[in-house]
Specification:
Number of strands: 6
Radius of gyration: 24 Å
Number of helices: 4
Oligomer: single chain
Strand order of the largest sheet: 2-3-1-4
Shape: flat
Structural class: alpha+beta
Helix content: 25-40%
Length: about 150
């Protein structure tokens, strides 16, 4: 908020003293278990009537609901849970390529859709470090897969 905005808010006479914070346009991704077309329809109808929602996308195979608009994530989660009676949570997965060690303990999740791993924890893979270029060079120098890599043997 710049100085000009601050002064214009101080001398603004149009409102009665209370300023309502504007919601940001954002995309909210939610995990909801959907088995059939009826479940999908029920989930879609639960959010389509919300104020500020501009687009609703559902991927039933991945159990993913994507809501786009001027909405708050907590309110969307609460509304879907209340209207459908299903267990609802913010989308906990990230693409497989983003994580350094996708099969590390706490990151890999068997229930995740294909191509995704759990992203709740730190992106470092639970304390595992990525190998540096010198470590990679030394470990590949004695590789069994490359017989010309080591002249000592």
């Amino acid at each position: 908020m710049g100085a000009l905005d601050h002064f214009s808010n101080l001398f603004d006479c149009s409102s009665a003293g209370h300023h309502k914070k504007r919601k940001n346009f954002q995309t909210v991704e939610i995990k909801v278990k959907m088995d059939c077309e009826g479940c999908e329809r029920k989930v879609r109808r639960s959010v389509e009537g919300m104020k500020g929602v501009s687009q609703v996308d559902i991927d039933r195979k991945a159990s993913k609901l994507t809501v786009t608009g001027y909405v708050e994530p907590k309110k969307v989660v609460a509304r879907v849970a209340h209207r459908t009676g299903k267990r609802v949570e913010i989308w906990p997965y990230v693409p497989y390529d983003v994580v350094d060690h996708p099969y590390a303990q706490g990151v890999y999740d068997r229930k995740a859709p294909s191509g995704y791993v759990r992203g709740d924890q730190q992106m470092s893979g639970g304390g595992l470090a990525r190998a540096s270029s010198t470590e990679v060079r030394y470990t590949t120098a004695f590789s069994d897969e490359n017989p010309a890599a080591c002249t000592v043997m």
